[in-house]
Write the structure tokens for this entry.
Amino acid sequence: MCGIVGYIGTQQAAPLLLEGLTRLEHRGYDSAGVAVLGGSGIKVAKKAGRVRDLTEGLPKRFTGQVGIGHTRWATHGPANDANAHPHTDEAQRVAVVHNGIIDNAAALRQQLTDDGVELTSDTDTEVLAHLVARSGADTLEGKVRDALAAIEGTYGVAVLHADFPDRIVVARNGSPLIIGVGEKEMHVASDLAALVRYTTTVAHLDDGELATLTAGGFTTYRQDLSTTHKLAEHVDVDPASYDAGEHDSFMHKEMQEQPAAADRVLRGRLDERFGTARLGGLNMDARETRAIRRVKILGCGSAYYVGQMGAALIEELARIPADAEAASEFRYRNPIIEPDTLYVAVSQSGETLDTLLAVQEIRRKGGRVIGLVNVVGSAIARECDGGIYLHAGPEVAVASTKALTNMFIGFSLLALQLGRVRDLSIADGKRLIAGLTRLPDQIQAILDREDELAEVARTLADAESLFFVGRVRGFPVAREGAQKFKEISYRHAEAYQTSELKHGPLALISEEVPTVALVPSDELTDRNVGALHEIAARGGPLVVITHEDVDLGDVAALRIDVPRNERELDPILLTVPLQLLAYHAALHLGHDIDKPRNLAKSVTVE
Ligand code: AGP
């Protein structure tokens, strides 16, 4: 949420900062700003709207070889020019960009106002600029340290000061910051995406760490200014993976990447001889694995829904009671942490604050947590006792697709390993391995039918309200389908258990309210088809995602057949067409697919 960039070196900073902000825009896109430090002091340009609006309005002589920039997702105060970052002190000697939330901002704003400071924004961040300016320390490092000592909350922060033109000071507590090392220049950003075009030699700051960047290098230290001796390392990333290439959006690119991503998460993890999975990263031996009595999965949004799919897999394959819960609610009900429960945190970004705080709550109470995380080295990944990296590659679109698919596959591998140290037979293990191996091609087969799905999507796009329904394994699929649809089409899409329709929501069914129904070929097919009749009898338009062998009788429906796999793995093949329906509905409506209104890619606030 929100993006930070910074540059110090021998080139003009503004174009580099703007380019970096464009690459971070998925993290927040309601306003943007840059500050540069040149011969005449600090200059600031900031604007509500997109980075392109900022670029168009940038003053001609906006020069300086040091600078910081920000793209915002509003928390304190509306998205307007005044609330956009960078924020400055009254004399504009200090400029600050900040991600995170300062919890005691109201009290600090009051103190500053009482002292006669005229605040110019509604933000929490502005206090930081004033606190840095008012510190009596004689170094920028000391001034930043003093300011941070006064605030409570989370931050990734970058500070410029006109009296110290040879440096940028940055600090991290809860919001990521990565330093990028160049040739006689240094970069900083909240996300690798903004750095990879310039350098792949990077250092990740830890919570509680600060750094000073000069054109010649960087030093890292703690709040008491004692050094942390951090070294930069090479990261193996392909800068092209941060470009949409020939695709009209990242979401489209990322959907198309699913077969390759699925292949990667499976690579080296299938043990065909013993019909099990090889998940060394869990850091658990067979005895510890056998001792697990319960599995609790925690995630937010789509990660929570795929967690529900994962819980069903674990219960079916390993016969261990399992459930998923929204990580955002978990710690507020004072959860009982049991020693023989395996807690699983699932997150694409590895940054979602609600999930991270849930992990910290569990660990504080002595529980064991593993992570299913995509971003290597992210906060959640580092906080967990072990885990399964998802290897989906960078995911930029706000609407998660390939990471989600790999989460499902990650859960399948976990369920397989848990099952095979218990009662799952070797024959069943081999059956599932064969099924997992078929998944990439089957996903591709669905993606190949994009034109057909686009036509179906157009029939849904104009409905103000829709239902997505499924039963048991199909219900989390319906939840995820509704989530994706509402996220990018802005239509009201509600997920229901098919069995629950008749207990209330059937009252809403009409010609104007279509239903997307998941009807796999399984033990519930007949009942599901019965529910379709009830919807059709009330004039409700139907789109049915199903399997070739399912007989829908005389129900009038647009039918999409997906390939069959083992029934435990079917949910992910039922999910993929729902991504395409959401995407094409949003495209038809002319929405910005990758940057849906009010949202951001990583939710790093509570
Ligand atoms: C997915 O399409 C959503 N944008 C959102 O629900 C997301 O899954 C959620 O915020 C969790 O993100 P994470 O996987 O990075 O933790």
Observations:
- The two ends are 11 Å apart (CA to CA).
- Residues 426-447 form the longest helix (22 residues).
- The longest strand covers residues 31-38.
- The chain has a mean pLDDT of 94.
